[in-house]
Amino acid sequence: MPAYVEQYQCELRLPVYLTFDDGPHLRVTRRILQVLREERAKATFFIVGNRLKEPGALEIVAQAIAEGHTIGNHSLTHCDLTLFSERDITTEVVTTSKLLEPLGVACTLVRPPYGRTNNVVAKVIEELGYQLVLWNNDPRDWARESQPDKWVDAVVAAVHERNARVILCHDIHETTADHLGCLIKRLSREGYYFATWGETGKEAGGLGQVLQ
Ligand SMILES: [Zn+2]
């Protein structure tokens, strides 16, 4: 193949952003990290602060960081932040980031639980210096009708039909870990690659706030 063709094809490769919410989970997150390692894929994990209080949880996040994944903030208690005062939203975000501090992670991303946001939530997150990150590809990996691997078809269909490449998954369900490798293989074969949020600079910045 001529070099210029190869290069052209290379430039066509588009990033897919795998994002995992609600962890760390002592067993499932470890399994997901293993799949990502095997498939040489990167992802972003939105951490629930209260989960870090479980023995062993911080170590899993440390492992994710060491393996090149990005860590984001998914609040302390996983509540609907639109019901909270500015002060309580601040506490939810800042306390979670403080819990991550021992790992030396500079957390710059916030994903509000359930994707619930409004002007107040967005303003507080921005004023605290974080980027608010939602998603545009929700396969409902947690739902009964998505089991065991229908959620994989849903992701691929949304990528094909809508170019929706910010994927919402949850690293607390075994079936998500079971079929993640299959998802990565399917999209990799089509030329997509799996990047952490922000890794690809301009594009991630351009996507900014992704609406559902
Ligand atoms: Zn969540």
Describe the protein.
This protein is α/β, with parallel strands linked by helices and 212 residues long. The chain has a single domain, classed as Glycoside hydrolase/deacetylase (TIM Barrel). It is 42% helix and 14% strand. The chain contains eight helices and seven strands, in the order H-E-H-E-H-E-H-E-H-E-H-E-H-E-H. The chain has helices spanning 3-12, 28-38, 57-66, 86-100, 119-127, 150-162, 174-189, 202-207; strands at 15-23, 43-47, 70-73, 109-110, 131-132, 166-170, 193-194. The strands form two sheets. Strands 1, 2, 3, 6 and 7 form a five-stranded parallel sheet that branches. A two-stranded parallel sheet has the order 4-5. Helix 2 packs parallel to helix 7 (174-189), helix 4 (86-100) crosses helix 5 (119-127) and helix 6 (150-162) packs parallel to helix 7. Residues 201-212 have low confidence and may be disordered. The site of zinc ion (ZN) has 5 residues, from strand 1. Zinc ion binds next to strand 1.
